[in-house]
Design brief:
heterodimer; A: alpha/beta; five-stranded parallel beta sheet; globular; B: mainly alpha; ABC transporter involved in vitamin B12 uptake, BtuC; 75% helix; 3% strand
Chain lengths: 377, 306
């Protein structure tokens, strides 16, 4: 905490003292139940800005409290009175849907460090909108592909009853070739899964796929482990990020999950990122932190080629994505969403710390399903 | 659907119900005795869970963690009652709602300030982990069975406290006529502090017990608080018996609704549409229950008729 305070104070001094050529508005979740994701995105982003040594980028950071109405107010303020050139930071898809379409139509560039709703990837894509994380379905598609290679033939699937939850199950089923023995939509924010676990026990499934981000996943994994069920579990990285794993404990050991990034990816950018993040903040980075870091580096790479005032050249520079990403090879598809490799990881214990180890590739150079609907060239 | 599955789901509903009872009992006592709407009750649930997680991490003992949860929540309750709540008894409900809502924000950000934004780890103790086999071949987690037993014991304890002790007589008298028992020489402000601390301690206990199978994080109390309000509205405000029956009803309705409604719709609908409609209706089931109770008995099942 103290290191962070120092680091951010230094950045704040840095930014306000200089004459900023580029103003970035970051709206992210820094309080409430989902704050750990926003903190990681922010810390990763600011670390990259700091490491670049550039003093011409000013970052304004605001907390959306995970509320769409607050996010909309903040975005109006940032566009109209702060006059930011670029916006970023939003974690949740419902907040992104409330903010992004209006922002990009007001000629603000939006760089998404996390949310990737399908509505913004297909027909609703926009030249000013770039997603540096993933389209929402991607990691679930990776999970489906992994389930095939693991030889699963019959999965029980569950996710919360909201749009991203339905995308998750659609994504899994798009690649999974086996049968689905049961499909449950749980309540969003549900914390007790005894009833669902009983249904899994009564089914004839040989594997369980679940998408329960944040605290929901912690609850499910602990209760699943205690239930005595031993079917293999698979899910996207959202229930297995660095911030959550310590709270799940032994219950997560050995679970396979899919991600576009892991801390043990061997490319030099990632090695340096993991080391410097740990040094600056005293904790291991999560995939969210890597996404924040990559977002800032993409922005810096574009700024080196063209000024933000030359909108066409700046957009072209962003789309070229000529920066060293923490996940290795990174490119944008026609709809400005990533074409990237999805990895399968396994939860392991290193000393006292629960973390992930890369097992292998689930989907190579994977583009999203909705790109075909996007009218962008 | 097999009998084993149905019995297992009924047990799950009971377990959820008794944990709701721990929350609702405090809430209904506080409302009944002091006429106070306490939105910050969920914060005591959170305080209990965080205190338990911290002490469990430090000592490794689950029993000590539970004791810590009770003490921390009771202390927080007493402190809040003496500094803030005491000024609110004479004011109307809107002021109480505003002030206790502010307390939620203070407690949430305070907890974040002390423990950070990342969820804490609190696990089931070794001697209660894993499933056991019940008669009839039902494999059921031992810890959940323990939760049911603890919840029932607390219910018996509260019943005895209210019906058999001097404090209970004062509480019941306080519900009926506040001015009169003050005039009879009962130290009313001490009674209020004790009731408030007792309610907070029960919430803290629930937080610690449930925290071991769920996630210990900032804001964990608010979803439970909403359900606890539903429970006391169904049961009748101020009635411990009502809170108990209401909590079991809500627990069973919520659990069984989530399982059986999709199955019922599958009888006459296409599979995935049935799942979607069934799940949506299941989320509404307890509120439909509450509306039905309010239509038939506007003061709740065991509420005093106005």
């Amino acid at each position: 905490m103290k290191t962070w305070l120092l680091a951010s104070a230094a950045i704040a001094l840095h930014a306000s003292a200089a004459f900023a050529d580029l103003k970035v508005g970051m709206i992210t979740t820094l309080s409430g139940g989902g704050a750990s994701l926003g903190l990681d995105v922010r810390d990763g982003f600011m670390l990259a800005i700091e490491q670049s040594g550039r003093d011409d980028i000013e970052v304004v950071i605001e907390d959306d409290q995970r509320k769409p109405d607050v996010a909309v107010q903040l975005s109006d303020k940032m566009i109209q009175s702060e006059r930011v050139d670029v916006m970023t930071g939003i974690i949740w898809s419902n907040l992104a849907m409330a903010v992004v379409p209006a922002a990009v139509h007001q000629d603000v560039i939006y760089l998404s460090p996390n949310a990737g709703p399908s509505a913004l990837a297909g027909k609703g894509c926009h030249a000013n909108y770039f997603n540096i994380a993933w389209q929402n379905d991607n990691l679930h598609e990776g999970a489906g592909a992994y389930a095939n290679t693991a030889g699963y033939g019959n999965s029980f699937v569950l996710s919360p009853n909201y749009p991203a939850g339905k995308d998750a199950i659609t994504g899994y089923k798009r690649y999974f070739e086996g049968d689905v023995s049961g499909e449950i939509y749980t309540k969003l924010g549900q914390t007790d899964y005894a009833a669902e676990i009983a249904q899994i026990r009564a089914s004839d499934a040989d594997s369980v796929f679940f998408f329960l981000p944040g605290g929901m996943g912690i609850s499910f994994l602990k209760q699943y482990a205690d239930s005595g069920l031993d079917l293999p579990v698979i899910g996207p990285a959202f229930s297995f990020d660095q911030g959550i794993l310590q709270a799940v404990g032994d219950a997560a050991l050995g679970v396979v999950n899919t991600s576009q990034w892991n801390k043990d990816l061997g490319n030099p950018t990632n090695v340096a990122f993991v080391e410097s993040f740990q040094e600056a903040f005293g904790r291991l980075p999560s995939l969210y932190a890597s996404q924040g870091f990559d977002t800032a580096n993409l922005l810096i790479s574009a700024l080196e080629k063209a000024p933000v005032s030359d909108a066409d050249a700046f957009r072209a520079a962003l789309k070229a994505a000529e920066f060293d990403s923490t996940r290795g090879k990174f490119a944008f598809g026609s709809n400005n969403h990533p074409v990237q490799t999805i990895y399968a990881r396994e939860v392991v214990k290193e000393g006292d710390v629960f973390t992930n180890k890369t097992l292998g590739v689930a989907l190579e150079n994977h583009a999203d399903f909705y790109a075909a609907d996007c009218p962008l060239p | 659907m097999s009998t084993v599955l149905i019995i297992e789901q009924i047990l799950n509903g009971l377990q959820f119900g008794v944990m709701l009872f721990l929350m609702a009992a405090g809430l209904t006592l506080i409302f009944g005795v002091m006429g106070l709407i306490n939105l910050a009750h969920g914060s005591f649930y959170m305080i209990g869970a965080f205190a338990a997680a911290a002490v469990a991490a430090l000592t490794g003992s689950f029993v000590l963690a539970l004791v810590a949860a009770l003490i921390a929540a009771a202390l927080a309750g007493a402190l809040v009652e003496m500094t803030v709540i005491r000024r609110l008894y004479a004011t109307d409900h809107l002021d109480q709602v505003l002030a206790t809502f502010a307390l939620i924000l203070v407690f949430s950000e305070g907890t974040r300030w002390i423990f950070g934004s990342f969820p804490l780890f609190l696990d089931i103790p070794e001697f209660l982990s894993g499933p056991i086999t019940l008669p009839g071949g039902i494999a059921y987690p031992l810890y959940r069975l323990a939760l049911i037993i603890v919840g029932l014991l607390v219910a018996v304890f509260l019943w005895a406290l209210i019906e058999k002790t001097r404090l209970g007589i004062q509480i019941r008298a306080g519900e009926n006529d506040r001015e009169m028992i003050a005039a009879l020489g009962v130290d009313i402000s001490r009674l209020y502090t004790m009731v408030f601390a007792l309610g907070a301690a029960l919430a803290g206990l629930a937080g610690a017990l449930v925290g071991a199978i769920q996630s210990v994080q900032v804001g964990m109390g608010e979803p439970v608080l909403i359900l606890a309000f539903v429970v006391i509205v169904i049961g009748g405000i101020g009635s411990i018996k009502g809170a108990f029956i209401g909590a079991l009803l809500v627990g069973l309705t919520d659990t069984l609704g989530g399982i059986f409604l999709p199955e019922v719709f599958k009888l006459f609908m296409e599979h995935s549409a049935a799942t979607t409609i069934g799940s949506s209706l299941a989320s509404m089931a307890i509120y439909i229950l509450m509306s039905a109770v309010l239509i038939l008995r506007p003061t709740g099942l065991f509420g005093a008729s106005q």
